[in-house]
Amino acid sequence: MSAPSELRLPGALPLGTDVPLPPLLEVTQIFPRPRIADVAAAVRDGLRPLVASLRGRRIAVTAGSRGIRDIVPALAGAVAALRDAGADPVILAAMGSHGGGTAEGQLRVLTHLGITEKALGAPVLSSMEVVELGRTPGGFAVYLDRNAAYCDGIVVVNRIKPHTAFVHRFGSGLLKMLAIGLGKAQGAAQAHRLGADRMPQCIEEVARALLAGGRVVASVAILENAYDETAAVEVLPPAAIPEREPILYEQAQRGMPRLPVEEADVLVVEEMGKNYSGTGIDVNIIGRWRHPTIPDPPAPRFRRIVALRLSPASEGNAQGVGLADVVTARLAGAIDFAATYLNAVTSTYLERVFLPVVAPSDRAAIQIALRSIDLPRPEAARLVLIPNTLHLERLWVSESLLPALVGQPGIAVGPPRPWDFTAGGDLAHLT
């Protein structure tokens, strides 16, 4: 197999690059903005009563691969609370099969997120080895990270938000961190191969088994607002997690950002990546799941989706690239296929890593998307340009979508934005 950098692309596309692009207007969205000013203090103060009796004990604190904005302050607060109690905290890489499924790769992911021993004042440990603690009533193996198994307790830290592989009364959060994050690649594979229907059952049973075993001493649930800021921190004792998480999940759903239009011809995503969503491009935002058993919602709907870049924080993992129809050679060249395919095979959703049409430049990618659909006047196409699927407070839409924005609360339309292509056809602000 040729390396991505060796992809042979035509210097000039045979379909031509004379497709006119629609003018863009800047759009600002105003969302509700509850937020916590001092996340570290909120975590530290919330944990203190729950960890006060842990003097002399080694306690693991989970750190996942998601791009949680205030994960470093949150972990720092947990470390401070444990040190104040006389405990010995360590940070654990808890992220299923991400990071290429290697201990070193998962450490690199954490480093990209700022999670280091220097930043937190606690060792950061990573291992892909697990121990099997037993079986649940449904027959699921209870896997636990070997480093966590050698500790005297676990503080589970994670953000609550909708999942991208199933729809249930809970999503990605504390239960998932227990069953998949601490279950490493084996725990992730066990849950994902069950499909969207049975995966939640597996997650909940495994998580409840770990909780019943007394290893978890506390948990920290993080909720974010639509600006990717910490909206709330809730510290929970272990027994409260299964009942409280679905309530927090409902709050998280209400706080998510959204696109201001329900239908358009083309959606252009400037950057995809694991730091924005587990699928690189959040299926809950784009309305396209490409899932064998979960139908797409009625809205939003985009006839074509274009992705231009893969974030460096993804470490080459392009999970979700198959959600796009067209990508650039720059994005394709950044893919680590071993890491991407491991994640895809573990999740079982191969469709989400099928390589789309590859274009030589940003301009060509957008033009291919426009050319491939029946548009009498491409310059009048309904087009949306977003930086990624996590930050949607500022985006750009074509003038043809202006009527769809009129009357919407919290929407401000700004001046036109010219396309800033370089001589090579790439967007200048992305180079």
Protein model, in words:
This protein has 431 residues and is α/β, with parallel strands linked by helices. It has two domains: 9-31 and 257-430, no CATH class; 39-254, LarA, N-terminal domain (Rossmann fold, 3-Layer(aba) Sandwich), CATH 3.40.50.11440. It is built from 14 helices and 16 strands. An eight-stranded mixed sheet has the order 13-12-11-10-14-15-1-16. Strands 4-3-2-7-8-9 form a six-stranded mixed sheet, with helices on both faces. A two-stranded antiparallel ribbon has the order 5-6. A hairpin with a 7-residue loop joins strand 14 (383-386) and strand 15 (394-398). The longest helix has 18 residues, at 195-212. The chain is globular, with a radius of gyration of 22 Å. Mean pLDDT is 93; it is low at 1-5.
Radius of gyration: 22 Å
Total beta-strand segments: 16
Order of helix and strand elements from N to C terminus: EHEHEHHEEEHEHHHEEHEHEEHHEHEEHE
Q: Stretches where pLDDT falls below 50 for ≥5 residues?
A: 1-5
| Domain module count | 2
Q: Which range does the strand content fall in?
A: 15-25%
| CATH structural architecture of the largest domain | 3-Layer(aba) Sandwich
Largest sheet: 8 strands, mixed
Helix residue percentage: 25-40%
CATH level-1 class of the largest domain: Alpha Beta
Lateral arrangement of strands in the main beta sheet? 13-12-11-10-14-15-1-16
Our count of helices gives 14
Task: Give the assembly state of these chains.
Answer: single chain
CATH topology name of the largest domain, in short, is Rossmann fold
Q: Tell me the structural class.
A: alpha/beta
Global shape: globular
CATH evolutionary superfamily of the largest domain: LarA, N-terminal domain
Mean pLDDT: 93
Distance separating the two termini: 28 Å
